[in-house]
Design brief:
By secondary structure, the chain is of the alpha+beta class. The protein contains six helices and six strands; from the N terminus they run ααβααββαβββα. It folds into two domains: about 30 residues; about 150 residues, 2-Layer Sandwich (Alpha-Beta Plaits), CATH 3.30.70.270.
């Protein structure tokens, strides 16, 4: 093999390895873009992408959406600092994920102290059972302090998976309104 051929082969091998690295990096970046950077849960964009795919395949299933807003989160940040707030979000994300444990569920952390759970194949009654479990967030330890996080929850259910974004958004709004009503009820009870 001549020097020219050897040089071409080496350059080709280097270029191929750079291309593989670039492809792997792009795949890793694409995977990271689907999750919340702190909690590792599905983010809002990935939720909509997954719901779109589900609506094409599983239209005849009942489903429920649970909207969750953490209570006492601002006080955690104000009292213990933002590291404690981040720890609280990670603790809650882990608790929700381990509590749901269903291949037919999507646990989503769109932003801030809000979470969403989509339960495929679950009726309104089944969603209420899940909500009662999610509401029992255990306390966690942060630098020797025992911290408790609460939450307000609301849900909306339908007998069939929606096939359009406006219908999904309407159901999400219904779940949000129910969650805010729960939050008001909690505030009035104090």
């Amino acid at each position: 093999m001549g020097l020219k051929t050897l040089t071409r082969n080496i350059i080709s091998a280097v270029m191929l390895s750079w291309n593989n690295i670039a492809i792997d990096d792009l795949k890793a970046l694409a995977d990271k873009s689907k999750v919340h950077p702190l909690t590792g849960l599905t983010n809002y964009q990935e939720l909509w992408d997954r719901l779109t795919r589900l609506s094409r395949r599983q239209r005849d299933l009942p489903f429920s959406i649970i909207a969750i807003d953490l209570t006492g989160f601002k006080a955690i940040n104000d009292t213990f600092g933002h590291q404690a707030g981040d720890a609280a979000l990670c603790h809650v994300a882990e608790f929700f994920s381990s509590t749901i444990r269903s291949s037919d569920a999507i646990v989503c952390h769109p932003h801030g102290d809000e979470f969403l759970v989509v339960l495929m194949g679950s009726s309104a009654e089944e969603a209420k059972v899940v909500m009662s479990r999610l509401q029992t967030i255990p306390s966690f330890d942060f630098k020797g302090e025992k911290i408790q996080v609460g939450c307000a929850l609301g849900s909306a259910s339908a007998s069939r998976v929606p096939t359009t974004l406006p219908v999904w958004q309407e159901l999400l709004q219904q779940a949000d309104l129910a969650m805010y009503e729960h939050k008001r009820t909690q505030s009035n009870a104090r």
